[in-house]
Structure formats: C-alpha cells, structure tokens
Amino acid sequence: MDAVRASGYTTVILWTLHINSNADLIFDSPLLVSNGVYVGASTWPAQLATLKQAPTSVNRIEVCVGSAGPNDFATIKTLIAQSGTGSGTTLYKNFVALKAATGADAIDFDDEQEYDVTSMVQFAQMLSTIGYKVTLCPYTNTSFWQTVKSQLGSIVDRVYLQCYEGGAGNNPATWNTLFGGLKVMPGLESPNSTFAQVQSKMSSWESVNGVPGGFMWYYDSMATLDMPKYAQAILYGPTVLPPPVGGLTATVTGNSTTLNWNAPVGSYITGYKVKRATVSGGPYTTLAANVTSTTYQDNTITAGTTYYYVVTAVDSIGEGPNSAQLVVSESYDTALPLLTPGSTVIGTPGSWNNVGDTVVKAFDNDISTFFNGPVADGDWTGLDLGNGSLKVVTSIRYCPRATLASRMVGGVFQGSNTADFSSGNATLFTVTATPPDNIYTTAAISTNLGSYRYLRYLAPLGAWGNVSEVKFYGVSIPAAPAGVTVAMKDGTGSLNWNAVATALKYNVKRATASGGPYTTVGPNVTSLSFQDTGLTAATTYYYVISAINEAGEGANSTQVTAIDAYSQWLVQKGFTPGAANTGFGQDANHNGISNGVEYMVPAGLGVVPGASNSTIMAIVRQDAQVTATLGYSTDLASWTQVSFPAAADQSGVPAGFVRLQLQDPMSPGVPKKFYRIKATR
Ligand SMILES: [Ca+2]
Ligand SMILES: [Ca+2]
Q1: Which 8-state DSSP code applies to residue 135?
Q2: Where residue 305 falls among pLDDT bands split at 50, 70, 90?
Q3: I need a surface site. Which of 252, 531, 592, 620 has the fewest CB within 10 A?
Q4: If residue 152 lies in a helix (H) or strand (E), which one and from where to where?
Q5: pLDDT (0 to 100) of residue 238
C-alpha cells in the first residue's frame, strides 16, 4: 500500500470482481460479499483505507467488474431480469456492502462479451443510486459503448480505453468523438512497454487529441520501484523537460563539499548539471555539466566563502528548472537566519528510560547530545516560533545521533500551523540517505512550501526520535514596499521606495493598464531606486514593487501612476515629444513664449494695479515635476525671487490648476517693477 501511495498514481482500480448467479461478489477468486455482508479478509478494508491517507498520490478507488473471462455482465443481466435493481435485492445490498468495505468511488465496467445496453444501463443506474460513479473500460465495439454513455450521461465520468492486447490498434482520437466531449484515458500495459514507449505514446496522443490522463495495466507486472516511473511516463512525455531535482544536501569536510540529491522518478534523465554562485539567487556558474550519478564533490571551495548551489536534471529535450538553492557556509548561524533563538522547543514529552535525553537536546547546539524518545515510533522534536511568527524555512541542518545515523533515514522535517501537527502538515524535507556522524548535513528547502509557526523533525518508525541537532533557518515573506513614488519625464520613470525589513532585493513591475497585468522591468534591484528608461513619453504607466528575500517574493506595493503631463500636453497641442523645438524651454509654435510657460501658465501672468497694492496673479498648473517661481526686476537685468502663495479664492480654477496671488505694496517713489514667472522642469 505504501508503494502505491508513493507511486504518483491518482486512481487505483481493483481488478476484478466477478458475480455469481446468486449475486455473491467474488474478488478474483476469494468470496468478498455475500447476502449483503462483507465476508472477505478482515484486514483488507483498513489496508485499502490507507491508500487515500496523506501523504499519498491516490485520491480515488475503483472496483472493476468483468474481464475477458467469466461473462459477469450476462449474470448481471439475468439477475436484473429475475429481481430488478431495487434496494431490497441482493445485488443492490452486495454493492452497498462492497462500497462500505472498499471505500470505492466508482465501478469500472470491463464487458468484453455480453454487450447488452439495457441491463448495463440499469446496473449503472443502480450503482449511481448507491453513490458510485461508473467508468467504462472498452477495447472494442464503439457503438455499444457510445450508446451506454449517452444513456447514462454524467453517471459515467471516465472512459478508460484499452490500447493494448485486443485494443492495441485503438486511437484515442477516434474514441474521443463518441462520448459527448468526454475524452478517453488511454491505457498501456507495463509488461510489454518500456517507460520510453509509454512516454512517447502518451505524449503523441496528448499532442494530437489532448488526453485527460492515462492508465497502466497492471500492478502485478510492475516492480515496486518502477511504478513511479510509469506514472511519470504518463505525466511527462518526451516533449517535457525534467522536473526540479529534490533532496539536495551537502556536508562540508575541510575544503571539500559533498553534494547529494534525489533522482527525479522517470527513466528519461540523461544527466545533471551542478551549478554554484557566490551570491544568493545567482547568476550560477556550471561546475559540472554531465554528472550521471546523484552525488558531486566540489573541491574548489575557499574557506570563509559562502556558496549557493543548485542542481538541474537534463533529458533529451533539455534542462529542467533549478533545484531549491542550497547554501553552504562555514558560518551558517550568522550567515543564515537561525530560528532557534526566541523559539520554544516542542515535541514528544519524556525520554528513553527517563534519562533526560528529551526534545531540547536536539536544539542545544551540541552535537554530542541527542533526543532519545520514550517510545520507538512517532517521536518528534520541533520549534514553536511564537504567535504570529510565521516563517518560510529556507535551509535545514541536521546531525544524527552518533553511531546510529541510519535511524534518520525516512525521517521528515515538517511545517504546520497546528501545534500538535494533527493536520495541515507540509513535508519540507525527507532524509533519504544516512547522514555522516558528528557533522551537520545541510538540506536545500524549496521556498514555495508555505509559511509556518510550528516546525519539527518526525523520526521514522523504530528510530526512537534519535537526532543530535536540528537547525531550521528561515525568514518571513517580506512585506510590500511602502512609500513608492514615481516621477516621469521625457521617457524615463524614476522610482523610489522605502526599505523593507529582511528584503534582499526588489522587483519593479510596470503595466500600461491600471491594475496590471504587470511586467517585471527591474528584476532583482538591490537599491531603493530605479530608472525605467526608453518609455513612450506621453503614455501613462502604472508601477508596483515587490520585495524579495530568502523566503521568496512578497506582495506587490500599492500601485503608483507615472504621467509625464508635459509630454501629454505636447501631444494635445499637436506636437511630438522629443521632436524639434519641443523642449520645455523651447518654443514649438514660434510665438515668443516658451513651451513650458504656455504649459504651466496658459493664461499668462496678470497684474491689477491698486492705490497702495498691485495684485499679481496667475492660474498655474499643478505639476510636481515643475517648479514655478515669481520674480521681479526694476531694470530687467537683475531679478529678485518672491513668494507666490495660493490665493484664498480658488473659485473658477480648472482642475489640476491653482490660483497664485501676491499683494505687492505700491507707494509713491517706488520704482516701476517688472514681474515674471519662471517655470523649470
Ligand atoms: Ca544536541
Ligand atoms: Ca510658444
């Protein structure tokens, strides 16, 4: 059962159920249900129930009826003719008992000889009443199956098409036209198909027809280790790049770092690339391009340097995505954010023989002390980071109990937001190889696994919780940047923002429609400002900024709008920004007044002389990028700047403008003054 749960298959079909003339249900040969009572092996229902228990890939169980052997559908036809399909019939009661015992979600019809539409439809309708879905598993006789499906409608939710043995010539594209839009899931047989053949066929069917999935016939012919490979062969055709490499770990001895990782399931991997950087996130330099094992020793490290490793898998199509980044440093506890300080150690209470080797011994920073739990199975030790303190784990280091390191194999590091880990657990890392004694092994953790308050190491069965040290490193996802501003001028947007705690860098994103979609135009910016150049001067742009740290990328900031209002004014006036004479201080329409003044003060400067005061006023455009100053002169040579405040009366002023007003005292004997407004941008 565990092998099936780890296989990658989502559906398990139990093959096959036969029906006696008295309606007894027989599974292959043992009697399973009789007179409405489950009489099969007493342990089987509980075993089957584990198939859907996390962690598992299985989310559906079906029981198949029929085969190329006994004519079960003839028996069903006879039983229905005798007694019908009512809830009082033995047939009905037996399928109720079957559902209770197996937890089956659906009954799969493998009729290869009877082909009676009426009784099959009645049988399916009875099953639907009980709560089953029905699936069809044809290999031939298209018109029969088409009729059955059309009469049953949504009771039938899948069609498994046999494309092996008698159905070897079947083309899913032909069958896809028969079932009212429901596409078939083609099946191949494992004894006579290699992984590569399955990949090739599934991929070609998918590219031509689109297939919702596929199946393999049959479990008994597959070695346990091959099941995931066949599942992957269905999922990943040869046109698909490999998935990311998982389980990347490192141990450092002297000037040598030994990397290990897990092979992705599937036979199509041709090799691995090992890459290294001295800056988190790269760019990475390839150390080795054609590594064919799942280990690599880097002998080119310099003491005191922190290295960042990633590994990729390569197949015949190309290179898959980077693995989670592995940080290798001699000073992890200062180079990475260690989560032990300020946290509370939690876990299984007590210790073996009550000798004091309790959960805290895994977090005492001493590799000679260890957690040794009170019972052999299910012991765990972990951290409570505190209320409201959710962290994304970016690295884990662990050191096994000396001489018993193999007790960590199969152990899992988990995150949860439930204190006792009774639900919502995410497995961050699984120990797949015996770690070396008396030294820390560092594991790379994919950072898209979520934010958690509770972290733990759960030892495998029989391991007494043994581990000498556990160190979790991580940070919270960074907050959205605040204080974002943008100024737009002549095709360049100038952005500034406030620093975000723990952020290492920022992404600047731009859209031409409010609300996005945004394109990242400034990736991985390490300062708090960015110049976005080469823009269309008169276009309005919208920006958001996100912060990035080891935990990943945080939420976008509030959107800011970038408008070069002067360039937009030029367009309104029929000019092209950037063309001749369109500069702020130039005169595009040759009327003797600069563009900037026409833009800023369309109505010009007004003066109303009074007995003791002259009133100088202007209606000035509000543009944060333009400074308008008022000056006077008595000789038109030397100018004195004076303040030009907003008037109390703003009535009649158009939106986007402000009325400025100055009362300048005029008295006899004071020389004549000239006033001017100067706009600079
Ligand atoms: Ca310890
Ligand atoms: Ca002009």
Answers
A1: E
A2: confident
A3: 592
A4: helix 142-152
A5: 42
Residues 606-634: tens digit of each pLDDT: 988 877 788 999 999 999 888 888 999 98
Q: Provide the pLDDT confidence category of residue 199 given band limits of 50, 70 and 90.
A: confident
Which residues contact residue 413 at a Cβ distance below 8 angstroms, ignoring those fewer than 6 apart? 393, 396, 398, 427, 428, 429, 430, 443, 445, 455, 456, 457, 458, 470, 472
The ligand whose atoms approach the alpha carbon of 369 most closely is 1
- Average pLDDT on 463-475 reads 96
**Most distant pair of Cα atoms in the chain: their distance:** 128
N- to C-terminal Cα separation, the chain: 74
The band of 560, judged by pLDDT with boundaries at 50, 70 and 90, is very high
Letter for the amino acid at 154?
A: S
Q: What is the CA(385)–ligand 1 centre distance, in A?
A: 19
Q: Please tell me the distance between residue 664's alpha carbon and the centre of ligand 2 in angstroms.
A: 28
Which of the ligands is closest to the CA of residue 595?
2
Cα(364) to ligand 1 centroid in Å equals 5
- Looking at all shown ligands, the one closest to residue 581's CA atom is 2
Cα angle 329-332-335, degrees, rounded to a multiple of 5: 90
- Quickly state the pLDDT bin for 668 (edges 50, 70, 90): low
Query: How many Å lie between the centroid of ligand 2 and the Cα of residue 120?
Result: 88
Q: Quick one: average pLDDT of 656-672? A: 82
CA of 632 to the centre of ligand 2 (A): 22
CA 180 to ligand 2 centroid distance, Å: 70
Among 12-21, 151-160, 255-264, whose mean pLDDT is lowest? Answer: 255-264
Distance of alpha carbon 373 from alpha carbon 241, whole angstroms: 43
Record the tokens describing residue 588, joined without a space: 């595009």
* Distance between CA atoms of residues 144 and 104, nearest Å: 25
For residue 468, what is the DSSP state? S
370 alpha carbon – ligand 1 mean position (Å): 5
538 alpha carbon – ligand 2 mean position (Å): 19
Q: How far apart are CA 111 and CA 106, in angstroms?
A: 16
Token readout for 450 is 């979520």
AA identity, residue 534: G
Distances (CA, A) of 393 to 275, 348, 450, 458, 550: 22, 22, 8, 16, 9
Q: Closest-lying ligand to the alpha carbon of 594?
A: 2
Q: Which residues surround ligand 2, an ion (CB under 5 A)?
A: 587, 589, 591, 593
Residues 360, 608: Cα–Cα separation, whole Å: 85
At 306, the pLDDT band (50, 70, 90 cuts) reads: confident
Mind giving me the DSSP string for 630-644? EEEESSSSS-EEE--
Give me the mean pLDDT over the 354-362 stretch. 97
> Do residues 326 and 250 touch, judged by C-beta distance below 8 A?
yes
Query: 369 alpha carbon to ligand 1 midpoint, in Å?
Result: 4
Which 3 state secondary structure label does DSSP give 353? helix
Distance 658 CA to ligand 2 centre (A): 21
For residue 565, report the distance from its CA to the centre of ligand 2, in Å: 17
